[in-house]
Amino acid sequence: MLGARGGWRALRRCASLPRAVRLRVREALGAREAAEAVRVQGWVRSVRSQKEVLFLHINDGSSLESLQVVADPSLEKRDLTFGSAVEVQGKLVKSPHRMQNMELQAETIHVVGPCDIWSFPLKMKERHPLEYVRQFPHLRCRNNTLGALLRIRSEATAGIHSFFQDNGYVHIHTPIITSNDCEGAGELFQIETSREAKESAENTHFFNVPAFLTVSGQLHLEVMAGAFTHVFTFGPTFRAENSQSRRHLAEFYMVEAELSFTENLQDIMQVMEDLFKTVTSTVLSKCPRDVELFHKYIAPAQKRSIAGKSDITHKLAWQEAPKQIPRPLLLFLQWGCDLQTEHEKYLVKHCGEVPVFVVNYPYDLKPFYMRDNEDGPEHTVAAVDLLVPGVGELCGGSLREERLPFLESRLQRLGLTDAYQWYLDLRKFGSVPHGGFGMGFERYLQYILGVDNIKDVIPFPRFSHSCLL
Amino acid sequence: MLGARGGWRALRRCASLPRAVRLRVREALGAREAAEAVRVQGWVRSVRSQKEVLFLHINDGSSLESLQVVADPSLEKRDLTFGSAVEVQGKLVKSPHRMQNMELQAETIHVVGPCDIWSFPLKMKERHPLEYVRQFPHLRCRNNTLGALLRIRSEATAGIHSFFQDNGYVHIHTPIITSNDCEGAGELFQIETSREAKESAENTHFFNVPAFLTVSGQLHLEVMAGAFTHVFTFGPTFRAENSQSRRHLAEFYMVEAELSFTENLQDIMQVMEDLFKTVTSTVLSKCPRDVELFHKYIAPAQKRSIAGKSDITHKLAWQEAPKQIPRPLLLFLQWGCDLQTEHEKYLVKHCGEVPVFVVNYPYDLKPFYMRDNEDGPEHTVAAVDLLVPGVGELCGGSLREERLPFLESRLQRLGLTDAYQWYLDLRKFGSVPHGGFGMGFERYLQYILGVDNIKDVIPFPRFSHSCLL
C-alpha cells in the first residue's frame, strides 16, 4: 500500500485522518519497517546540513506537514536547495522525534528540477506577508499560507456539492453568458468576439443581441425549480465594479439555491444555516492543520470573527445552545435607506458580534422579483440577508413573487414586460410559492479563516486594473 | 420519516435505492399503512377521469417516475389540468398495480398554481422531439427527456468531483477572465464593461489590458500542479466559433486535470480511462431509469455508440476483458495534416467502433507547451486524444515541455517570450515532468446517452446567433 510510487501521498493523507487511525498506520509501518522502501517526490522546504547528517523537509502539497528526510552528508549536492524538486528513495521509519510520526532514511536523492534561490521570490523558513506573495500569482501557491488556503477552498467546494446532493437538490450549470441583467445593476461586463471589439461594430453581435457576464444564476434557477423543486448552482459571477476594496472582486464564486413550495422566509434561513454549519464542519474535520494555521498566525485572538478559538465555541453555540445567543434576530427595518457597511457593522455589534439575519426590507430598495409582504401598500418584501462579523453580507435571499398580477404590474412600471415575458410565463404554467438565496464563497472563506482581503482567498484574483496571467 | 412535508421527496428517492432497500421501505409502509398520512406537492403529469375514480400522476422532478394519486371524482376541479401545481393530502398505500410500489389515496387536492394548457407548449403524454422543446428554454426542463438529462448531468457532476477528491486531487477554480490565450486560437470572446463597449474606448480597459474568456484552465492548473502535485478544475470554457454544428457551443464545460512527476503518456491515459469508467458507473447506478429513457427512446439500437445495450457490454469489456478489444491502439501518425472529423470517424471505425487513443502528433500541429518526443528534429510531441464513436474527440491531453531551453526556444520563435515570462518561471523554480488532459463534459454526456445534438445536453445552450434568457 505504501510501496513505490504514490507512497508518500498515501502517507501524507494519514495526517488528516482521526488520531486513532493514524496511530494504527504508524504501528503497521513500524512492524514492516525494514521492508518499507519507498520513492518520494516533492519540493524541498528546508535543508539543514550537519556534520554527521543531512536533514531535508520535502512537501508535495497534499498537506501542510512536510516529510523529514534524513541522509548521509555525502548525498548533498549543490543544487539541492530550497524550492528544488527532488525524488528520494529510502526507507520509512518511525521518527525518534515527538513532533512527527515518521521520517525517511534516504538512500538516493535525485534533484529533478533545480531552483534558482537568488531569483526565487519565496525564501526558506520566512513567513512572507500575504501582500508580498500576492505579487507572484504563479508562485504564491507554494507558500504555506496560500497552500493551506487552497486546500481548504478545495474541501469547502466538495463540501458544498455534497451538502446539496445529500439533501436531494439537482445541480444546474446556470449560464455564464446571458442576455439578462438579473439585478438591474449597471455594473456589467459585456462580451464581444475579439474581432467585434476591434471593429466596434454595434450591429453585428455574435449572439445577435448584447450579451453579458452573469451577475447571478437566480432567474435561471427559478426556471429549474419549476421542474426539480430543489436546485442549486455553484459557479463564477461577475461585477464590473471599479473597486479595489478588500471586499470586492470582479470575478467571484457564488453558491445559489432555489426551493419550490416554500412559503416561509424561515425555511430559506434554515437552509443557509445548515449549509454554513455542514460545510464548516467538513472543512474543520478534513483540514484541521490548515485551518489552525489561519487561526494561529493570520487572525489570532480575533474574537469578533469565527477565526481563532472563539469561532469553534461559537459554532458549537449555534449547534448546541441556539437559545443562548440572540439568533435569529429578526429586525423589521423602519428606515428607508439601504444598509451601508457601517449599518451592517452596527447591527452585528449590537447583537454581540454574532451572525445576524436581517429580514423584510423596504419594497423600493429591492429588485422586482422579491415577494410583496402586503403589510402595507408596497411596504416591505420578504427578503433576508445574513450578516457576519468582519465580512458583512455573507448571504442574501428572498421569497420570489410567484403571483402573476403582482409581478406583471411591477415589470410594467419598470418597462420590462417584454424582456421578461419568459419570466412571466413561469407564473402562468403551474406557478408555486418559492424562494432562494446566494452565498458569496470567498466571503465565506474570509469569515471562517479570518482573512482580511478577499484577494487572498481566490487562486487568481481579478479586480479593476488587474488581471494577472 | 415519511410524514407531512417533504414526504414524497423522501419516498421518490427510494426508487433509486437498491431493490432490497426499496422492498424494505415498501414493507414498512405496508405495515404502517393506516397511519401514513402525507402531504405531497408537485406538478400534474396526467389526469384521467373515470366514472368512479379520478387518477392523477404528479411529479416533483426528483425522479422520472410519477406518483399515482387515486381520488374520488368529486375532488376534480376545472383547473386541475396537465402542468398545474398541486398539493395533495392523503394516505400512502400499497398499489394493487405491478408497475408501481405505492399510490396516494387523496383526501384533499389543492391546485397551487393553475396551468393554461392552451398556451402551454408541452402537451400531456406527448413525446415531443428534442428540436421542438429546444424552442422553450424556460419550460423544456419540465419535459421528461430534458428532466432525465439534467438529473443525469447533476449526478455526473457530483461523480466527477468525487472521483478527483477520492484520488487526492486538489480542486482549483481556474479563472474565467484571463489576459492569456492558451491555445493561440483566434476564436476568443473579449470582455469590456458595458460603458467601454458603448464608447469603444480602446485605451481604457477595465483591467488595464485586453481581457478574454478562458478557452482552457490548463496553464493555470500547471501553476497549481507545481504546488499540489495533482490538481483538477471543472468549469465553463468558451469559443467564439461561428458554428451552429451539433458538436459545438460557445459556452461549454470542461474537466481538466494536471499531474506533476508524470513522465509517461500512458499515466495520463489511465486517468482519462478511470475518470470515464468511474463517472459512468456512478451515473448508471444513481439514475438507471433516466439513462434507460435515452437508451430506449433517443438512441435505440445505436450500436456504434455507448448508448443502447451495446455500450454497457462495451463498458464491461473495458473493465473485465481489456485484451478482447484493440485498446489502447497507439497510432503513430505519419501524415502532417491535423485530424479532421472524417479521419476521426475512420479511425474509430477501423478499430471496431470503440474508444481509441491516438498518440504522438506531429510537432508543428500542436501548441507550444507540448513536450518534444525527440524522435527526430521537431518531429512529434507527446500528445494524446481520445476519440469515441459518434462524438469524435472526447479528451485531449499531453505531457508538457518542462525543460527550460526547449520551451524558451519555442516561445522565442513565436515571439511570445515576454507574454509567457511567468510560464517560463515555472521551469526555473523546481520544474518537474508533468502532463494533463481535458474532457469535454457535454461530449461525455452526448456519448454515454447517444444524444446527437450538443444543445440538448446543457441547460441553456449558447451558440452563434443565440443566447436565450
UniProtKB/TrEMBL annotation, chains A, B:
InterPro entries xref list: Aa-tRNA-synt_II, aa-tRNA-synth_II, aa-tRNA-synth_II/BPL/LPL, Asn-tRNA-ligase, Asp/Asn-tRNA-synth_IIb, NA-bd_OB-fold, NA-bd_OB_tRNA
GO biological process, one term: asparaginyl-tRNA aminoacylation
Keywords for this protein: Aminoacyl-tRNA synthetase, ATP-binding, Ligase, Nucleotide-binding, Protein biosynthesis
All residue ranges annotated as the Aminoacyl-transfer RNA synthetases class-II family profile domain in the record: 150-459
GO CC list: mitochondrion
Pfam family for this entry, one: tRNA-synt_2
Gene Ontology molecular function: asparagine-tRNA ligase activity; ATP binding; nucleic acid binding
EC number(s) from the headed UniProt entry: 6.1.1.22
Family classification: Belongs to the class-II aminoacyl-tRNA synthetase family.
Protein's name according to its UniProt entry: asparagine--tRNA ligase
Source species: Lonchura striata (white-rumped munia)
High-level lineage: Eukaryota, Metazoa, Chordata, Craniata, Vertebrata
